[in-house]
Design a protein that fits this description.
Blueprint: H1 3-7, H2 16-22, H3 29-38, H4 42-54, H5 59-68, H6 72-79, H7 85-94, H8 98-113
Helix pairs in contact: 2-4, 3-4, 3-5, 5-6, 6-8, 7-8
Length: about 120
């Protein structure tokens, strides 16, 4: 283990397995978002997204993912849990990935028809 790895937090460790293990210790959703946006390993990004989703993140975190993540699947997952219709409309119009735009259109339909309201009762 190098000196830099000893000085930095585990979530920034050079070994992806260490970063993966550190996810369960992260309590700040902003750190998880940073991992999702910047980590080079897909399995770390997706595990961090799962942990973030369990925290019920606010829309600002999800918007950052939609604007900064280059991972198409992360973008699709994020739009599926967003509730800000104006941001979802932007994604449906402008996202670079057809798959994500389709997910955004589907999410808008869910929100507008209140498809899942019966589960909240």
């Amino acid at each position: 283990m190098g000196l830099l790895n000893r000085l930095r937090p585990k979530w920034r460790h050079s070994n992806p397995d260490v970063r993966m293990e550190s996810i369960s210790e992260v309590e700040d959703p902003a750190i998880l978002v940073e991992m999702i946006v910047t980590d080079g390993e897909w399995f770390v990004r997706h595990r961090a997204f799962d942990a973030l989703r369990e925290m019920n993140p606010d829309e600002a975190h999800l918007r950052r993912l939609m604007r900064e993540s280059e991972d198409e699947e992360i973008r699709r997952k994020a739009v599926k849990v967003m509730t800000d219709e104006s941001e979802i409309e932007r994604v449906a119009r402008e996202d670079q990935y057809l798959y994500v735009r389709d997910a955004a259109n589907h999410r808008l339909e869910e929100l507008r028809t209140r498809l899942w309201d019966h589960l909240a009762k």
